[in-house]
Task: inverse folding
């Protein structure tokens, strides 16, 4: 997947540049509600339940202020990624115990294989390992900036 | 959608997650990215608890299908079962929309209509 393709997987209506929620459960709820409002999913219940279960397997807050909640469900029609940012940070039970400021929510249909989303997850987790990119992601306030950081114009 | 069918869908999502965590290739990939997968036993407990809430006959039907196919419940897209790709009769959908649990007449999988 080229960087341009990575950028093209994001949509402006699937970004929350300033999360209102301050707690882990409510952050997940806010992101899932946003997906429902955008018409990407029809049922919040299944997705929230799946994400909560995923967190019990191990926190998707990998540290460095970034989290990657993810999973597959029959209630997801297509690969979907949502970007969210919390300017003040949230306790997401991150592996380094530090506040989480950026979230990449990745959801994939269950009838397709895990590889559907693993490649994207791998790209995004690698992205936050770059200190300069990470600093930019912390400060993202609009879609154009996000596209620039992701390395493409999204077309 | 009937409550028991919602539970079945949640059970399948959980089964897929457990399978991914158990599979060496997938779990190795996730660990390489930095994810910890220490809570597998927690997931198995959650699975057992959820399965206990589903009526036995329905659960057995699910388990039998899940043993045969990779997915017991399969979505319907453009009136087709995405398991066997057979076009489903229009009459199917009137009963589906009245919250009945429907089965693909060709492959026997349970159908999820988004």
Result:
């Amino acid at each position: 997947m080229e960087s341009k393709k990575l950028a093209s997987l994001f949509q402006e209506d699937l970004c929350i540049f300033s999360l209102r929620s301050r707690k882990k459960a409510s952050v997940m709820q806010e992101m899932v509600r946003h997906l429902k409002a955008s018409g990407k999913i029809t049922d919040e219940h299944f997705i929230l339940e799946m994400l909560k279960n995923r967190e019990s397997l191990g926190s998707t807050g990998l540290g460095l202020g970034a989290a990657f909640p993810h999973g597959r469900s029959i209630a997801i029609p297509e690969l979907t990624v949502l970007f969210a940012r919390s300017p003040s940070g949230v306790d997401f039970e991150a592996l380094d115990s530090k506040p989480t400021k950026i979230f990449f929510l990745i959801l994939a249909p269950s009838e397709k294989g895990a590889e559907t989303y693993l490649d994207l997850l791998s790209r995004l987790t690698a992205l936050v390992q770059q200190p300069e990119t990470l600093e930019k992601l912390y400060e993202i306030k609009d879609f154009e900036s996000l596209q620039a950081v992701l390395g493409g114009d999204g077309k | 959608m009937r409550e028991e069918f919602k539970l079945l869908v949640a059970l399948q999502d959980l089964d897929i997650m457990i399978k991914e965590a158990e599979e060496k290739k997938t779990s190795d990939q996730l660990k390489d990215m930095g994810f910890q997968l220490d809570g597998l036993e927690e997931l198995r407990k959650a699975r057992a608890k959820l399965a206990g809430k589903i009526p036995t006959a329905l659960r057995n039907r699910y388990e039998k299908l899940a043993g045969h196919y990779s997915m017991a419940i399969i979505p319907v897209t453009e009136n087709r079962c995405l398991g066997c790709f057979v076009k489903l009769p229009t009459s199917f959908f009137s009963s589906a929309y009245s919250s009945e649990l429907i089965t693909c007449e060709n492959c026997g999988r349970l159908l999820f209509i988004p």
Q: What stands out?
A: The beta strands of chain A are 15-16, 61-63, 66-67, 70-73, 80-90, 100-109. The radius of gyration of chain A is 14 Å. The mean pLDDT of chain A is 91. Chain A has six helices and six strands.
